[in-house]
Amino acid sequence: MKKRTPISEIMTKEVITLNTVDSLDKMEHLFKKHYIRHIPVVKGDKVVGILSYTDLLRISFADAVDEDDES
User: Fold this and answer.
1) Of 66, 71, 3, 59, nearest to 27 (Cα)?
2) What pLDDT, on a 0 to 100 scale, did the predictor assign at position 65?
3) For residue 22, what are the CA distances in angstroms to 3, 18, 42, 53?
4) Which pLDDT does position 4 carry in this prediction?
5) Residue 3, pLDDT score
6) Per-residue pLDDT of the chain (71 residues; tens, 9 = 90+)
7) What confidence score (pLDDT) does residue 59 get?
8) pTM of the entire structure?
9) Which of 67, 62, 54 has the alpha carbon at shortest distance from 28?
10) CA atoms within 13 A on the CB side of 40
11) Residue 11 in contact with residue 1, Cβ under 8 Å?
12) Range list of H helices, the chain
């Protein structure tokens, strides 16, 4: 890639997003279905954050630890 390559030539044009009310199951499904590692989170027409696959793993690990503590 050349240093002067316009961003428009390399960017993702059809962005997969989540809404703030979507579930973690939907997030996991999108990561696996589309082989992606980051998903923008939108509320209306504004991006309010980005979730990564690592975020999902952290949440899953924390839930597993909490379940072990309860037993």
Assistant:
1) 59
2) 63
3) 38, 6, 10, 15
4) 92
5) 85
6) 678 999 999 999 999 999 999 999 999 999 999 999 999 999 999 999 999 999 999 988 776 665 656 65
7) 87
8) 0.73
9) 54
10) 12
11) no
12) 7-10, 24-34, 53-70
Amino acid residing at 33? K
Tokens of 32: 């696996």
Contact 22, 42 (CB under 8 A): no
CA-based R_g, the chain, Å: 16
The pair of structure tokens assigned to 7 is: 């961003």
Beta-bridged to residue 19, according to DSSP, are 42
Pairing assessment for the beta strands 38-43 and 46-52 based on DSSP bridges: antiparallel
Which pair of tokens denotes residue 11? 């960017």
Tokens of 21: 């009310």
Which parts of the chain are beta strand (E)? 18-19, 38-43, 46-52
Tell me how crowded residue 55 is: count the other CB atoms within 10 A of its CB: 15
